[in-house]
Automatic annotation (TrEMBL):
Record family assignment: Belongs to the biopterin-dependent aromatic amino acid hydroxylase family.
Positions bound to Fe cation: 130, 135, 176
Originating organism: Sphingomonas baiyangensis
InterPro entries per record: ArAA_hydroxylase (IPR001273), ArAA_hydroxylase_Fe/CU_BS (IPR018301), ArAA_hydroxylase_sf (IPR036951), Aro-AA_hydroxylase_C_sf (IPR036329), Aromatic-AA_hydroxylase_C (IPR019774), Phe-4-hydroxylase_mono (IPR005960)
Domain Biopterin-dependent aromatic amino acid hydroxylase family profile residue range list: 1-290
Descriptive protein name: Phenylalanine-4-hydroxylase
Cofactor: Fe(2+)
Pathway info: Amino-acid degradation; L-phenylalanine degradation; acetoacetate and fumarate from L-phenylalanine: step 1/6
Keywords carried by this UniProt record: Iron, Metal-binding, Monooxygenase, Oxidoreductase, Phenylalanine catabolism
Length: 290
């Protein structure tokens, strides 16, 4: 997800008009591959029993257990066969219209750089571990793959209707930090959680954050923080339901109604909320357990 300060305003040297660049897989150093392996091994110990079935199935189907930073060409070949998506390399955050256009055409943009060994726990910009390990396995799920394409098309429309902030919140509370209900309990599908060892625990186990039943309008009105654990998570009953709501909603009147309304602050609760867990809000910046 972007925080706009880093978005360049023109394709950098060597990038195509659509901002894609060669991944440069051969140029990765053994140390960079080792960073991927370190992050992968840490997450794969945590995720069974925490990540959604769809995520774990995608991780397996795309053979992301193989060592080292994946080669986007090989990864895209497998992914195309499953859901028609491919992974393309970009130099970093790209302008919203470029981002949405790729998504509307089933191209997932991924940074090709990887964080340094001293940045294992957090970095602002989405690197290849966040983008590929975090986002790509869900693209192997046909229903979620349809949702993300619909999101991309919706993004282009939201730009025209001046409702980008509302749409970015939908992305944030589903694609980045979404939870889903499964028979055994709540599970993670959001890339921002699944690629973070601390938040993979916090999001499900910590008593602090609210866990609220997903409601499209509610989510589109809710602010979010980009630099710390979430204080509220939204839970979809299924990806079918998430797709159905997104495809069936006429966004123009929805935007007309909610764009003029004040946003709902992080951690607020409303009378209409289906509160699955009323958080203690005990977590303060940097004090999370684990
Ligand atoms: N660019 N590479 C990249 N990755 C993102 O996640 C991204 C982006 N540009 C815009 C963006 N995200 C968000 O601002 C949109 O979802 C609104
Ligand atoms: Fe992301």
């Amino acid at each position: 997800m972007a925080d706009e300060t880093h978005v360049l305003d023109a394709p950098p040297e060597g990038a195509a008009a659509d901002w894609t660049i060669p991944q440069g897989w051969d140029a990765y150093t053994p140390e960079e591959h080792r960073v991927w392996d370190t992050l992968y091994e840490r997450q794969i110990r945590l995720l069974p029993g925490r990540a959604s079935k769809a995520y774990l199935k995608g991780l397996d189907a795309l053979r992301l257990s193989e060592s080292g930073i994946p080669n986007f060409e090989e990864l895209s070949e497998r992914l195309m066969k499953l859901t028609g998506w491919q992974v393309v390399a970009v130099p970093g955050l790209v302008p919203d219209d470029v981002f949405f256009d790729h998504m509307a055409n089933r191209r997932f943009v991924s940074g090709n750089f990887i964080r340094r060994p001293d940045q294992l726990d957090y970095l602002q910009e989405p690197d290849v571990f966040h983008d590929v390990f975090g986002h790509v396995p869900m693209l192997a799920d046909p229903v979620f793959a349809d949702y993300l394409e619909a999101y991309g098309r919706g993004g282009l429309r939201a730009l025209e209707l001046g409702a980008l902030k509302q749409l970015a919140r939908l992305y944030w509370y589903t694609v980045e930090f979404g939870l889903v209900e499964e028979d055994e309990g709540l599970r993670i599908y959001g890339a921002g959680i699944v690629s973070s060892s601390a938040e993979s625990v916090f999001a499900l186990d910590d008593p602090s954050p609210h866990r609220i039943g997903f409601d499209l309008e509610r989510v589109m009105r809710t602010e979010y923080r980009i630099d710390d654990f979430q204080q509220n998570y939204f839970v979809v009953p299924s990806f079918d339901e998430l797709l159905r709501v997104t495809v069936e909603t006429d966004f123009a009147p929805l935007y007309e109604r909610i764009v003029p309304l004040p946003p709902l602050p992080v951690a607020a609760l409303t009378a209409e909320d289906k509160v699955l867990h009323h958080g203690t809000q005990a977590y303060a910046r940097g004090k999370a357990g684990g």
